[in-house]
Amino acid sequence: MPAPQTADGDTADTEPRDTEPGGAEPGDTLQARFDRLDREIARQMDRLGIPTLRVALGVVFIWFGGLKVIGGSPAAELVSATVYVVPPDVFVPILGVWEVLIGLCLLYRPLIRVGILLLFLQMPGTFLPIVLLPEVVFVTFPHELTVEGQYIIKNLVIIGAALVVGGTVRGGADDGSAEANAEPTVPDSG
What we know:
By secondary structure, this protein is mainly alpha-helical. The protein has one domain (36-180). The chain has nine helices and two strands; from the N terminus they run H-H-H-H-H-H-E-E-H-H-H. Strands 1-2 form a two-stranded antiparallel sheet. Helix 1 crosses helix 8 and helix 3 (88-107) packs antiparallel against helix 4. The protein is elongated, with a radius of gyration of 23 Å.
């Protein structure tokens, strides 16, 4: 009978092993020790990655939004120059409250869907300066960005992170469910 396999394809030993001091097994090569260490590090990163990403996103949105609410955001001038339909003294604090709500929703697991929705409704507006104020975004179009341009382009990372976190709302890796950890199956073609 073949040995059971773990989710990453390794053989799971079910029998106890004799180990040397430091957790090494008798006759271990340096490569075998490295592989075990590498697997354990990867498992811990897998276990902690998405929850850490979700909390980090929440903190960033609360922090940046809070700065807009209290009038301390370095992005307020850029937002004001981009959105000229609504007075800046009204729009910037409202945007700040919106961002704080995104952050709070991401921190409270039952509201992740709401937070992701609010985030994706807000994100297109963050890219408006690229179209409306290219002279503020680029030193040399299209590759040399100003600090403001870098601030805008980093939102691509936020979008990617939101997609990863959003992928957990139906029982993804963040909750440790067996369904989330199952490998995808390929249907038989015959």
